Amino acid sequence: MGLLQLLKSQVLCHLFICFVFLVSGIIVNMLQLCTLPLWLVNKQLFRRVNIRLAYCISSQMVAVLEWWSGTECTLYTDPKSYSHYGKENAIVVLNHNFEIDFMCGWTFCDRFGVLGSSKVLAKKELAYVPVIGWMWYFLEIVFCKRKWEEDRKTVAQSLQNLQDYPENFWFLLYCEGTRFTPKKHEISMQVAESKGLPKLKYHLLPRTKGFWVTVNNLRGKVAAVYDSTLNFRDNEAPTLHGVLNGKKYHADLYVRRIPLESIPEGEAECAAWLHKLYQEKDSFQEHYAQTGRFPGPITNPPRRPWALINWLFWCGLFFYHLVLLFVQLLSSGSMLTITASLAFCVAVSVGVRWMIGQTEIDRGSTYGNKGVPLNNN
Ligand SMILES: CC/C=C\C/C=C\C/C=C\C/C=C\C/C=C\C/C=C\CCC(=O)SCCNC(=O)CCNC(=O)[C@H](O)C(C)(C)COP(=O)(O)OP(=O)(O)OC[C@H]1O[C@@H](n2cnc3c(N)ncnc32)[C@H](O)[C@@H]1OP(=O)(O)O
Ligand SMILES: CCCCCCCCCCCCCCCCCC(=O)OC[C@@H](O)COP(=O)(O)O
């Protein structure tokens, strides 16, 4: 093990990275709160400012993935589609099998310059996660309770609000609605069977209502659907812990650009279209399993320096102040101050441990775990 790799495996380094993320994130959240009055005066300026503030947070995770762990991300797509990426609004449909799939998504957003503005249809529970969940309020992220009776109005309204969004964004949809587990797969294939749909090997049966409502409420604003299929080399199941430990993964993403006009408007037709798309996605994963690659040419976007610069800025700032604080603490000799500081560090570690838990599939929800009729948790 080289010296750098040894450093990357040190718990103290992980604590420092997490501390920087949490404290800088809360500072940015507070700045976002201060921008609220702007909404009343100049909504578009509010949005542009918040895109940049959000970048300060999400790009830290991109920097850790790209520069700390050195994870490589390969893009399989045709050059004609490539020329559109980052220059238009798009709905991204992605498989949901991996704990860090959202980080890989963010990496591609950064490479095409849409990281700050990108959006997702996220489960409501994530809105309460400090830093990221709070940041999402100011980005007008669309939240759902995964209860259609309650979501149908709120989701449509939140999507309509994006019609006059001033900068290009990608809107991510995990149509499977939850992360892949063998149990959820088995149950969703029973549903597929009961609906007379072909079985999928690598995906859960997609939930079609969110897709239908998204496509129809973003019509006129969004140019295309990016059908994206992600996998990792060597059958890896990457984790955030692995990334923090400096483990290098290799992600492969296959993207097809599908013009929005080609997607049917009616609910039943749109649902049938999505089921067919997932059957195709399944065949791409089968191709990957057989050959170790996706079909089509590789066109790799280079990583950009901004995420690294932002991360180094925050790390430098906090390192300097932490050293100062440490020296002052020791020289003060006050047991009370030392105990309070230790308690603060423990609280940060516990908070971060809980946040990392949100990314872990083993700690995931029971949504999709129960047979038909469906009960949400
Ligand atoms: C060039 C590069 C390209 C790409 C780069 C890649 C990506 C980058 C892009 C952007 C990045 C931006 C941000 C990313 C950052 C972070 C993201 C992190 C996490 C957030 C993710 C989540 O929170 S996922 C969970 C929430 N989202 C969803 O659930 C979306 C999908 N769900 C839906 O659409 C649902 O329809 C719904 C939520 C709107 C409503 O759900 P509900 O359950 O109430 O209703 P449904 O109608 O869907 O369910 C009932 C129907 O389903 C059938 N059923 C029953 N059981 C099952 C089962 N087990 N499996 C499947 N189907 C089932 C049932 O029979 C009903 O059928 P109907 O025929 O009546 O519809
Ligand atoms: C700079 C690096 C610092 C790293 C350490 C700091 C901790 C950061 C933790 C970030 C937590 C952010 C959570 C948002 C992403 C959650 C992704 C996700 O995949 O959600 C799951 C849902 O889709 C479906 O849920 P399930 O029904 O499967 O349950």
TrEMBL record:
InterPro entries: Acyltransf_C, Plipid/glycerol_acylTrfase
Superkingdom of source: Eukaryota
Coiled coil: none
Location in the cell: Endoplasmic reticulum membrane
Keywords: Acyltransferase, Endoplasmic reticulum, Lipid biosynthesis, Lipid metabolism, Membrane, Phospholipid biosynthesis, Phospholipid metabolism, Transferase, Transmembrane, Transmembrane helix
Start and end residues of each Phospholipid/glycerol acyltransferase domain: 90-212
Family from the record: Belongs to the 1-acyl-sn-glycerol-3-phosphate acyltransferase family.
BP-aspect Gene Ontology terms: phospholipid biosynthetic process
Main location: endoplasmic reticulum
Name of the protein: 1-acyl-sn-glycerol-3-phosphate acyltransferase delta
TM helices/strands, residue ranges: 12-40, 126-144, 311-330, 336-356
Biological pathway: Phospholipid metabolism; CDP-diacylglycerol biosynthesis; CDP-diacylglycerol from sn-glycerol 3-phosphate: step 2/3; Lipid metabolism
Catalysed reactions listed for this entry: a 1-acyl-sn-glycero-3-phosphate + an acyl-CoA = a 1,2-diacyl-sn-glycero-3-phosphate + CoA; (4Z,7Z,10Z,13Z,16Z,19Z)-docosahexaenoyl-CoA + 1-(9Z-octadecenoyl)-sn-glycero-3-phosphate = 1-(9Z-octadecenoyl)-2-(4Z,7Z,10Z,13Z,16Z,19Z-docosahexaenoyl)-sn-glycero-3-phosphate + CoA; 1-octadecanoyl-sn-glycero-3-phosphate + (4Z,7Z,10Z,13Z,16Z,19Z)-docosahexaenoyl-CoA = 1-octadecanoyl-2-(4Z,7Z,10Z,13Z,16Z,19Z-docosahexaenoyl)-sn-glycero-3-phosphate + CoA; 1-octadecanoyl-sn-glycero-3-phosphate + (9Z,12Z)-octadecadienoyl-CoA = 1-octadecanoyl-2-(9Z,12Z-octadecadienoyl)-sn-glycero-3-phosphate + CoA
General function of this protein: Converts 1-acyl-sn-glycerol-3-phosphate (lysophosphatidic acid or LPA) into 1,2-diacyl-sn-glycerol-3-phosphate (phosphatidic acid or PA) by incorporating an acyl moiety at the sn-2 position of the glycerol backbone. Exhibits high acyl-CoA specificity for polyunsaturated fatty acyl-CoA, especially docosahexaenoyl-CoA (22:6-CoA, DHA-CoA).
GO CC aspect terms: endoplasmic reticulum membrane; mitochondrial outer membrane
Lineage: Eukaryota, Metazoa, Chordata, Craniata, Vertebrata
Organism listed in the record: Sphaeramia orbicularis
Pfam families cross-referenced by the UniProt entry: Acyltransf_C (PF16076), Acyltransferase (PF01553)
EC number: 2.3.1.51
Membrane topology: Multi-pass membrane protein
GO molecular function, one term: 1-acylglycerol-3-phosphate O-acyltransferase activity
